[in-house]
Design a protein that fits this description.
The structure is a homodimer of 393-residue chains.
Chain A lengths: L6 H5 L4 H8 L6 E2 L12 H15 L13 H15 L8 E4 L1 H13 L5 E6 L3 H8 L4 E8 L2 E2 L1 H10 L2 E6 L13 H12 L4 E5 L15 H4 L4 E6 L11 E4 L2 H15 L4 H13 L2 H26 L5 E2 L7 E5 L6 H10 L2 E2 L1 E2 L12 E5 L5 H19 L1
Helix pairs in contact in A: 3-11, 5-6, 5-10, 7-8, 12-14
Protein name (chains A, B): Aspartate aminotransferase
Cofactor (chains A, B): pyridoxal 5'-phosphate
Organism (chains A, B): Leptospira kobayashii
């Protein structure tokens, strides 16, 4: 049977990451390849209490179909948190609960992207966004990401040459690089975007996980009418419930809700109720502090080990938050070749290739520090350092 | 800002149903307009026990990210149930867990439908399918649904005139009509489809809710290589967890999984674990028997009341299962006009219009019986009967 598939599905890059992760499930392998939050920090007992309470007090209501917009009380809670933590005024009507941030990306693609329209994306960029948007067949324009943010020269020339429908980025502690856009960089990016009709997608799953450095102001606070802001409970509560949200301007909400309804009617409502009960009965900030402290220790352990064991030519990010660190090998070295050796020595990471629109044998590597204890981090980085040293000499 | 939206989102019919349901939330209104399972039958205590057990025994694992395919043990359970209940051999690798059946429809659209390809759909048809597929901009071809199944003459001529990419139907106790395809009708439909390269989407959320009549064999058992079979736990367990599944042939699975991953990474895994624990520790068949007995009583109450209070000209379905009954007014009468009067008399139903591709002032009405007790059903149907009698005289 020919042509059974839609053209759009053929455009989606196969998840090379998925294949890599399969090779790293072996228990002997020290894996910096994952992208998971540390499961030791999940509030298991508190979630148990919240589940019981929701069923005792609300019973059938928590198990019935619900609204596509998401649980209003939860949307109000998110609105209040934006006000208290970031000084942002967000109406609960401008918040849509999504099945993880990933669904936010799909809804944006569905609602906004026509085939062949231009989508600018930071590079390296988040693979899940490339996948989600690919289904709507845009032309991607890569904007290089540096240690302080987007490459402004490329951004300016891109906006001069093309009508950019969307620009996508993870400005805080990005996956894969751990890099952030500086406030100065954001000022310039916002200025360029505000001179266009482009929508900026500010994907912020890691913003709450800042463990050092100065707080940076969101794009949403700079250009609210041109920003869609995505948030997630996956990294500060638990990922398996698949609860995220999007904040969007009035003029976009109605269509986003229609797209949401067509996609899965609504997000798992029992989970929304459990989460809201948890937020009522517990101090989320205290919980987040624990996560930050743990991840800071893990990040510090990785940075120290890199200083000790990696050859001096290797550049790397020292992230202020999040779960990832980015290492840059000398230009001629393919991190895939390093990966092949590393896996034999039972240490894994993600080679940079999948995080670029169109590049193979990139010289970059993503190192996740949130799932490995400090001692094992040192052992793993020592192994990696030896492989890299051998490789480049 | 002009042209901000994608063309595809402009094609999605606004949910007229959503608007109708808003007018019926008033507590005074006897509503046959809903489409919800009866919340009194949700196994609240059992779900509570399952939630606690999952967290006690599996803790962090149940709260972590998981695989896009869905929980393997749950997929095996579904496979076993197909074997034991329907004599069907389905490999767990051909089962994909979805965020409700609704997501199954979205994934089918994403993976299979190119713009302007033809999708045949029974008429009246399930609104959620029309919405989900609309996003992928097919041309819909309506196949009239009669009391015994699809109109075969229209089906044959449609397959002769067009290359039909997909044909969609709910062959058991359909929403909105409560009608089923007879075994003879299925034989003929399967024959026509098997002479083409068309994929038949067999959406079966109500199959387990059969309370009378003979069991009919699935399309999947007739033409497995051309069928995608959708199932759901929403009507036999609880809808708020948003857990459904799809069964698809080998050649489609890889692309469906890629589409799934791009859409929301995976379905709420905590919910999958709770559901599986519930299935391990409880007798689902016993639970389903209770639902069937309750719905049968409600259906019988509605049929008796219709016999008593509706004018004799009104035709109606007497469904063997599910949650809906379909009434057909004399041809010149618009059920929307009847609705406007009914809502003033505090009784509601869904006028037929939204269930057709392109029709206004249809003479049909959807009556839901699963959420109203028998006594109230009689009162509501009495009111409706009076309105209809006045209207047609």
């Amino acid at each position: 049977m020919n042509h059974i598939f839609s053209d759009r599905i053929s455009d989606v890059p196969k998840s090379f990451l998925r294949e890599i992760l399969k090779t790293t499930v072996n228990e002997d392998v020290i894996s910096f390849a994952g992208g998971l939050p540390n499961r030791d920090l999940f509030p298991i007992e508190e979630i148990k209490k919240a589940s019981v309470k929701v069923l005792d007090e609300f019973g059938g209501d928590a198990l019935q179909y619900s609204t596509s917009e998401g649980y209003l009380e939860l949307r109000k809670w998110i609105s209040n948190r934006y006000a208290s933590k970031m000084g942002l005024s967000v109406n609960p009507d401008n918040i849509l609960i999504t099945t993880g941030s990933q669904q936010g990306l799909d809804l944006i693609g569905k609602t906004l992207i026509n085939e062949s329209e231009h989508v600018a994306i930071e590079e390296p960029g988040y693979l899940g966004a490339i996948q989600a948007f690919s289904l709507y067949r845009p032309r991607f324009l890569a904007i290089p990401l540096h240690f302080d943010g987007l490459d402004l020269e490329t951004l300016r020339s891109t906006f001069q040459s093309y009508t950019v429908k969307l620009i996508y980025g993870v400005p805080n502690f990005q996956n894969p690089s751990g890099l952030s856009h500086s406030d100065e960089n954001r000022d310039e990016v916002a200025k360029i975007v505000s001179n266009s009709k482009t929508i900026l997608v500010e994907d912020d799953p890691y913003g709450e996980l800042q463990f050092q450095g100065e707080k940076r102001r969101s794009y949403f606070s700079r250009i609210p009418d041109q920003t869609i802001l995505l948030g997630s409970f996956s990294k500060i509560f638990a990922p398996s419930l698949r609860i995220g949200w999007m904040v969007a301007p009035d003029r976009l909400m109605e269509k986003l809700i229609i797209a949401k309804q067509a996609s899965d009617l609504h997000t798992n409502y029992f989970g929304q109720r459990i989460l809201f009960q948890y937020l009522l009965d517990n101090d989320l900030d205290l919980h987040i502090t624990k996560i930050r402290e743990k991840y800071l220790k893990q990040k510090d352990a990785m940075v120290s080990a890199i200083e000790k064991y990696f050859p001096k030519e290797i550049k790397y990010s020292n992230p202020d938050g999040g779960m990832f660190l980015w290492a840059i090998l000398p230009e001629q070295i393919s991190s895939r070749a390093v990966f092949d050796l590393a896996i034999k020595e039972k240490v894994a990471f993600v080679p940079g290739d999948p995080f670029y629109i169109n590049r193979t044998n990139a010289n970059t590597m993503r190192l996740n520090f949130s799932c490995v204890d400090e001692e094992t981090i040192e052992t793993g980085i020592e192994r990696l350092g030896k492989i890299i040293s051998d490789f480049i000499r």
